[in-house]
Amino acid sequence: MSSKFNHNASPEIFRRAKELRENMTIAEQVIWERLRAGKLNGLKFRRQHPISKFIIDFYCHQYKLVIELDGDVHEEKDQKERDLGREEELKNLGLHIIRFSNESVLNETNEVLFKILDKISEIKR
């Protein structure tokens, strides 16, 4: 895989991403079922995708869109600060980020999908 596509992710990041794909959370499974195989307007998404030193929950390379799902741990102050730093680094790579809580994915799946499409429309402009 090209280093530009993964922004020089290390072999260790690739190994960890594979493990995460094999052990997805319920929210990740729900959204993946709706994103995989071009089910969302023919868009191609990858799950647990290595980029630089990070593993992105879902990624659409065509629009450089990162989709992150947040469980309860992301409400903790330290984790919020780490998330902000991570977002800043990803934005510096030219990526767009959208975040959803696991609860939103599980309880408002269609709304989450509409927000993803809205974000892509915004990126296209």
Descriptive account of the structure:
With 125 residues, the chain is an alpha+beta fold. It has a single domain, classed as Endonuclease, Chain A (3-Layer(aba) Sandwich). It is 51% helix and 20% strand. Strands 1-2-3-4 form a four-stranded mixed β-sheet, with helices on both faces. A hairpin with a 2-residue loop joins strand 1 and strand 2. The radius of gyration is 14 Å and the shape is globular. The model has no long low-confidence stretch (mean pLDDT 91).
What key phrases describe this protein's structure?
125 residues, Endonuclease_DUF559_bact, 6 helices, four-stranded mixed beta sheet, single chain, Endonuclease, Chain A, Restrct_endonuc-II-like, alpha+beta, 4 strands, globular
- Widest β-sheet, arrangement of strands: 1-2-3-4
Low-confidence stretches: none
The CATH topology is what? Answer: Endonuclease, Chain A
> What portion of the residues fall into strands of 2 or more residues?
15-25%
Structural class: alpha+beta
Gyration radius over CA: 14 Å
CATH class: Alpha Beta
Shape: globular
- The structural domain count equals 1
How many helical stretches?
Answer: 6
Order of helices and strands: HHHEEEHEHH
Pfam family, one: DUF559
Domain DUF559: 15-120
Protein name: DUF559 domain-containing protein
Organism: Belliella aquatica
